Amino acid sequence: MVRVTFLHPDLGIGGAERLVVDAALALKKKGYDVSFLTTHHDLNHCFAETKDGTIPVTVVGDWLPRNVFGKFFALCAYIRMVYAASYIYFMNQRPDIVFCDLVSVCIPVLRLYIPHVVYYCHHPDLLLSHPGGHWKSLYRALLNYLEEVTTGQADKVFANSKYTQSVFKETFKRLRIKPEVLYPSINTDFFDKTRVVSLERALDKKLPEDSFILLSINRYERKKHLALAIEALAHLKKYVTDSEYKKVYLILAGGYDKRVEENVEHYLELIELADELHVTDKVIFLRSPSDIDKVSVLRHCNVLIYTPPNEHFGIVPLEAMYAEKPVIAHNSGGPTESIVNGVTGYLVEGSGEAFAEKIAHFIKNKNLAIQFGKAGKNRFLELFSFAAFGDQLNRSIEALVNNQKEN
């Protein structure tokens, strides 16, 4: 049996984490022996499959600092991942393949004693760093160089979308690698088997039975532009009647880690914005919902709002499509590949008014939401199914193993 270890820096709740967990589940279904190695795993802030024993998780190096006096987060992440990669050398049964993502600097270490290393590129990390002064520029130049060089040492590189594939090519100009596009999927078995709880239980709050529910699912980070959803709710007053508007509520659900200063700050910023726009009574904040609660609010909502610009791909629109919900998303990045404008949802420019205008279409025509939802489900099954994801990943892993045997 081929052993595959997934090496991930922080096995919490997020799109990247959902992707690697689903990849592990897909390979497990194909008969692989899969496990996770991570530098942090909070049992109160993780996906169920990593908590209930479905996939074994080993935590190493959590004692290493995550930052130095509030700085050098990237450098500390590099050190933690190199430590974790080194730990694999001392395992009783070393894996045949290590699947890593987010931090590539561990790849040269792994290549010393692991037959195959696979790297999944969600997005080049160097593009996510904020500009700074002279010393930070030098610091980032070194880290950026390491990211590019070490990424090129993987035996196989995946990208999560054609958009990310193009960004990879434009960013890593030294590399002659063309990543294979492996679209993420979702664990549809979990969606199908999950017992949907009432909206009142999921939110711990009762809403009128005829409510029109807008849902946003994203981590509490500024780059996700969650404020757009609140602004759209406020602008919506101009496009619907008072009686229609009275029934509308917005649920902001997403990952929230109290250790992360930005999560705490942005949550408070959003509360303040809702108050400024006089929509406090129509906005419900749901922080780090359980998997069951997330599926439940998704099943109960009428429309999903996806606000991040230039998102690398976006798992949440796929979840909504599978749940037969129309999606209104920013017209950029990965959603332009998953959503068909005017068929499964709408792609709009980044303003609250643009989102509000499209939301009004669904409020005034309930059948339109049903029509778009069914089209989205069909598109998901055709292009983004968990079976297709697992088959493609399995073919690539088999090709790596068979190529070694032939050589």
Description:
The chain is an alpha/beta fold and about 400 residues long. The chain folds into 2 domains: about 5-185 and about 385-405, 3-Layer(aba) Sandwich (Rossmann fold); about 190-385, Rossmann fold, CATH 3.40.50.2000. It is built from 17 helices and 13 strands. The strands form 2 sheets. Strands 3-2-1-4-5-6-7 form a 7-stranded parallel β-sheet, sandwiched between helices. Strand 5, helix 5 and strand 6 (about 155-160) form a beta-alpha-beta unit. Helix 9 (about 225-235) packs across helix 15 (about 350-365) and helix 13 (about 315-320) packs across helix 16. The radius of gyration is 22 Å and the shape is globular. The relative contact order is 0.12. The model has no long low-confidence stretch (mean pLDDT about 90). Its main location: endoplasmic reticulum. Belongs to the glycosyltransferase group 1 family. Pathway: Protein modification; protein glycosylation. InterPro entries: ALG2 (IPR027054), Glyco_trans_1 (IPR001296), Glyco_trans_4-like_N (IPR028098). It is found in: Endoplasmic reticulum membrane.
Short account of what is shown:
It is a single-pass membrane protein. This protein is of the alpha/beta class and 407 residues long.
